[in-house]
Amino acid sequence: MNPSTPVTSEDVARHANVSQSAVSRAFTPGASVSLKMREKILKSAAELGYRPNALARAMISGKSGLIAMLVAYLDNQFYPVMLEQLSRRLQASGYQVLLFMTEPGDQDEVVGRILQYQVEGIVMASATLSSDLARECARTGIPVVLFNRYVATSPASCVTSDNIEGGRLIADYLVRGGHERIGFIAGAEDSSTNRDREAGFYNGLAEHGLAVFERVVGGYSFEGAAAAARVLFDRPDRPDAVFVANDHMAFSVMDVLRDELGLRIPEDVSVIGYDDVPQAAWKGYDLTTVSQAGAQMVEATAEILVEQIEQAAVRKRAAVLPAELIVRSSARIPQG
């Protein structure tokens, strides 16, 4: 065979003495073909140097097998971990993942470019899209899942943890630990995660007859959280505890409290975060936090996407997974 001529599936079929449809099934995840037949075809393909053309197959079948993931930032350690797990889960179901980055406010433009790749589904993590574009995706049969956030008016599906209950658990824990001046460092004002965590936190304080001591915005950034910590704590009437809206910011807050202000954690101030990223368990932080049940969120996201792609039926679904308080040493432990 001329080495400059691409090897085709027909060549493999002739070499293996099987039908072309058998070759196609051998290279299709989940297709019906015996193990013996698959091994025979793969052996012939290896000898001929054949590689399936995924783009050509997509043009013929109308199915690309591609899922787009759109993220606005990866600074928060929660997202790289979740995106890796979700990518592996989708690959196990026969789909490949394309990662796209965006800036806040540019999501719709990026999604417009994503659709040129003939993707079969879209996951939005740390990003949202307009309701109009979500409706357009639904109209064309492309399911969209918002991961770790929701927009009530959007037709897109969503997967979150119970952020309201998580916030309430934190308030209850801090009050039972004997704290009275409890501050809050907020994330992004326009994010559903921040709104729900804050609402649950305030409700939990109210159950004990308390209100938040002071609120400062950290914007879900490391630098913003450091600045917020200085505003809250570099003064005589400082809080005796603080809930920080995610772990990424909580690490920055703990660095400022200990290294700049000379405060002891938890002797002088208790700190609680949210997400339970791997670094939260590191000895240097040992952060008390709320776990988001990430594995369950990944599974729910994959199930929604795969089901709606394979059934060719896009509809809005919402999955809310339980939140769990993870007790470590950064917050005073309630007695009794």
From TrEMBL:
GO molecular function, one term: DNA-binding transcription factor activity
Transcription among keywords: yes
Pfam family, one: LacI
InterPro entries the record matches: HTH_LacI, LacI/GalR-like_sensor, Lambda_DNA-bd_dom_sf, Peripla_BP_I
Record's keyword terms, sorted: DNA-binding, Repressor, Transcription, Transcription regulation
Taxonomic superkingdom: Bacteria
Occurrences of domain HTH lacI-type (ranges): 7-61
UniProt keyword DNA repair, yes or no: no
PANTHER family: LACI-RELATED TRANSCRIPTIONAL REPRESSOR (PTHR30146), RIBOSE OPERON REPRESSOR (PTHR30146:SF95)
The protein, known as: Transcriptional regulator
Organism for this UniProt entry: Hoeflea phototrophica (strain DSM 17068 / NCIMB 14078 / DFL-43)
